[in-house]
Amino acid sequence: MSRVIRRVVIGIGSAHGQDAIGWRIVECLGRLGIDDVACEFARTPLEILDRCEGIDSLHLVDACIGPESGRLHQLQWPDERIVALRWTSTHGIDVPGALQLATELGMLPTSVTIWVMECEGNLIEGAWSSAWTQRIETAANRIARTKARAVRGEIFYRCDRTSGL
Amino acid sequence: MSESETTTRAIQVPILTRVEGEGALHVRLRGNEIEQVQLKIYEPPRFFEALLRGKPMDDVADITSRICGICPIAYQMTSVQALESIQGIAIDPEVARLRRLMYCGEWIESHVLHIHLLHAPDFFDCDSAIELAKRFPNEVKRGLKLKQIGNRLLEILGGRAIHPVNLAIGGYYRLPRHEELAALVADFEWGLQNSVDAAKWLKGLTFPEFEAPYEFVALSCPDRYAIETGEIASSGHTSIAVEDYEKFFYEVHVPHSTALQARKKPHDSTYFVGPLARIQLNYHTLTPIAKQTAEAIGIAPPCRNPHKSILARAVETVFAFEEGLAILKSLTMPSRSRVPYEVRAGEGVSATEAPRGLIFHRYRVDGQGKVEFAKIVPPTSQNQAQIEADLRQLLPQLIACDDAKIALDCERLIRTYDPCISCSTHFLNLHIERV
After folding, report:
1. B381 or B364: which carries more pLDDT confidence?
2. For a designed S-S bond to B59, which of A23, A58, A86, B55 qualifies (C-beta 3.0 to 4.6 A apart)?
3. Where residue B15 falls among pLDDT bands split at 50, 70, 90?
4. Which domains does chain A possess?
């Protein structure tokens, strides 16, 4: 009997501006209709802890400020570079903080992947061009492919060549 | 002149975690004299009151909720109630109970967050919640589950936990389904028991010896623990009507802070708002289990030690579960989501008890229902001057200590107030200048 793999993908951010990148990617991923994958949305990193217990793999999708809009970075937790990055958060608990807390509480699955898409400057409402739509779709497809490989037992790890990541 | 009186010494603590918002503490010492203590709030003002001008009344709750991601209900509820008073709206009793329930949810998630992730580490010599979780995983997990229940309630009643969208002038935009709320009864029963256990976990804490002759200020009701209604009670004067708030309290701009500071007339005195003030003033109206818990953990009045605010929050968490459970068990769903009304011009006020203390709003709207004027007095601006006064009282005991100890103790004292300087960035620089 094959084991049911429970995977959760969480977009972090909100519905507005570049903060929406994580949500939009996960929305797009949801439309792909992959089996056994729960697509969820979090406004604060602490919400990750509400959804990560008892699952097999966790994917977080967030936005970052960077020079190359649309570039997608993939990191595997734990990684010191993730902690070293400057994260913004509400009330002192950022993404690495939430993951460290979940680790201490034994709540994290063995596989935690963080996807971060670069965005240059402010992305205001109405500025979601077709280029951005393409970037979002490409990112969602890439995450979907990666997850498919993980299912086959080929845990995928690669970090894009870029400064700081 | 001795060397100690001439030595210049500056200390920077670049990041103070577990404080909500962006600010700095500047202390200038001349020899053994404290020359200046300033809680500096330097993040840009957000001009919410100006943003509201010209906006339709219906937009106000959605805009004010953005002031804080942790206590948006306080801002929404206070603004909606002020606008309802202008429009002469009396909300349906069932809606009023749902709103009180909603506010309980906010108290739960805010208090539990502060207790477990921001404040408790101070009492266990931990630098962070992560370190605390290593030592007390079950207690922290329990805290996270308690918070989750508060969030779930807000999702049902507010549409979402962060910046809810469902509160409307006259009631709610959409009523929750009865079964959604009824499903929470089991969670609230679990939450009540476990919030008592969480409070008892804090019972044995060692608190710094610090007391001050505070004037506590909070809403108060004769027959129930005040949250969303009441008169303004004080340990220093008789109760006043919310309409008279500005006759007794006012805000001033100080050069070192972009946040206004509140003072009390006629002596420009400081005052204390928040859970400790509420417990002191409204102890007699606590629900039975909350009162038993307060007695058991040692926070019954009189208490003038701000460090014990963590106990006050723990008791109020028990209260919020107990009160919420009572509402959930006797739930009668409203027959309509909101009261219809004809727009009229006028001016109105409201005050409620945010998790961090009294919050006051005043609005004036025109005949088209557009906001002409808005005034919002949050709890942290009311506590800001009191925090500075506390630090002035604390510092003489610390002058002989090294800078790290001074910084640590000042930070601890500030954290007892759970200051919400803003909800966007989060650090506080401590600068001690010895001249």
Report:
1. B364
2. B55
3. very low
4. 7-151 (3.40.50.1450)
Tell me, yes or no, if A89 comes closer than 8 A to chain B by beta carbon.
Answer: yes
Cα–Cα dist B305/B190, whole Å: 31
Residue B423 has a pLDDT of 32
**Whole-number percent of chain B with pLDDT over 90:** 73
Distance CA B319, CA B145 (A): 17
Q: How far apart are the first and last CA of chain B?
A: 12
Q: Cα-Cα-Cα-Cα dihedral of B213, B219, B223, B228, to 10°?
A: -150
Contact list, A106 vs chain B (CB under 8 Å) = 137
Task: Assess contact for B414 and B19: CB atoms under 8 A.
Answer: yes
Phi, psi of B209 (to 5 degrees): -80, 105
With 0-12 / 13-18 / 19 or more C-beta atoms within 10 angstroms meaning exposed / middle / buried, residue B86 is: buried
User: Mutate which of A90, A94, A100, A103 to test chain B, going by most B C-beta atoms within 10 A?
Assistant: A90
Percentage of chain B with pLDDT > 70?
A: 92
Report the gap between the CA of A40 and the closest CA in chain B (Å): 13
Residue A92's pLDDT band, with cuts at 50, 70 and 90, is low
Query: B118, A91: Cβ pair inside 8 Å?
Result: yes
Contacts of A92 in chain B (CB under 8 A): 17-20, 117-118, 426
Q: pLDDT averaged over chain A? A: 80
The verdict on a CB contact (< 8 Å) between B137 and A105 is: yes
Strands A57-65 and A111-119 come out as parallel
